């Protein structure tokens, strides 16, 4: 799988413009190599996407499922995050371009739940006066976001059901992105097949630039 980028019109940061997936199938000799075969539309979710083999995605676990490895992460941030660090420990969780919150990775689920409860009772949930607390079970929905922590495009690969799955976590720092997925959560973008230069078949997903006029319609 390959990706190319273009600058965002909002902050000039790179955003995904084209995704290509090698399908491991030869392009038919009788077919025109310059032809694009339209497959249909791929719906885009403003919260992120997972692209992978259907057999693997059948085993996908969502946010409400239990983690297969029995582990979870806990993180906290906010006005009194340094006080929480002094009281409970934890380390900065580095992410691309930022220091990240204080947190604890790969805890047994029961231990993680107890810690999150203790943090919340301490000063959690008090707007402007406490810390925000997050308990993230190791579901596939969370693991693909974690896999992209150190990538400038929030992209990472994980194994699901014995298959590699690519996760794309759209940038949450902006309410709108170059792909307009947050401004237009119901948007669908066409998929097509094309011939690769080595004679193989490639699936291409081209994301058009953000249309400022479209937001007003």
How do the strands and helices of this protein lay out in sequence?
Elements lengths: L1 E6 L6 E13 L10 E7 L5 E4 L1 H4 L13 E7 L3 H8 L2 E2 L9 E7 H15 L8 E6 L2 H8 L7 E6 L2 E6 L19 E8 L4 E7 L5 H4 L2
Write a concise synopsis of the structure shown.
The protein is α+β, with helices and mostly antiparallel strands and 217 residues long. The chain has helices at residues 54-57, 81-88, 109-123, 140-147, 212-215; strands at residues 2-7, 14-26, 37-43, 49-52, 71-77, 91-92, 102-108, 132-137, 155-160, 163-168, 188-195, 200-206.
Structure description:
With 217 residues, this protein is an alpha+beta fold. It has two domains: 92 residues, no CATH class; 68 residues. It is built from five helices and twelve strands. The strands form three sheets. The protein has a five-stranded antiparallel beta sheet with strand order 1-2-12-11-3, with no helix packed on it. A four-stranded antiparallel beta sheet has the order 6-7-5-8, with helices on one face. Strand 1 and strand 2 form a beta hairpin. The chain is elongated, with a radius of gyration of 21 Å. About 7% of the residues have low confidence.
- Rounded Rg: 21 Å
Number of strands: 12
Strand arrangement in the largest pleated sheet: 1-2-12-11-3
How many domains in all?
2
Mean pLDDT: 81
As residue ranges, the low-confidence spans are: 172-186
Q: Mind describing the biggest β-sheet? A: 5 strands, antiparallel
